[in-house]
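Entry for the shared binder. Reason: the reviewer on the internal report wants the predicted structure included alongside the sequence.
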Amino acid sequence: MSRRLHSAMLDSAADATEAAVNSAVTVAGRWPILAACLVTPTGAGLAEWHHAYTEKVSAAVEGGLAALAAWQSIVFASLLAPATPLGLAEHAMVVARAGARPAQRRVRLNAERFTLPRSY
């Protein structure tokens, strides 16, 4: 396995681990708001519902466009130099990371928003 592919795989694993932790924090912070809004609808609860689903749709669209842009740059680069099997695997990791980056950014921002400030 090439060093660049190995590095890309490790970076993807680290990004996925960070996103999983941030997702757990976000779910723990958002769930009480969403559940309370089902019982007694409030403006803040409905705004959180709206925020929750619009950010998912926008992250999916942004991720799809970012993955498409990464794929196009790889296709154009392969016109100049033939791709190797290891190169294709590395390029696949680049496309996957580019597509996941918008969702990872949003989940990180949500985790920061739902994390209580510490008063030491």
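Summary line for the report: The longest helix spans residues 43-80.
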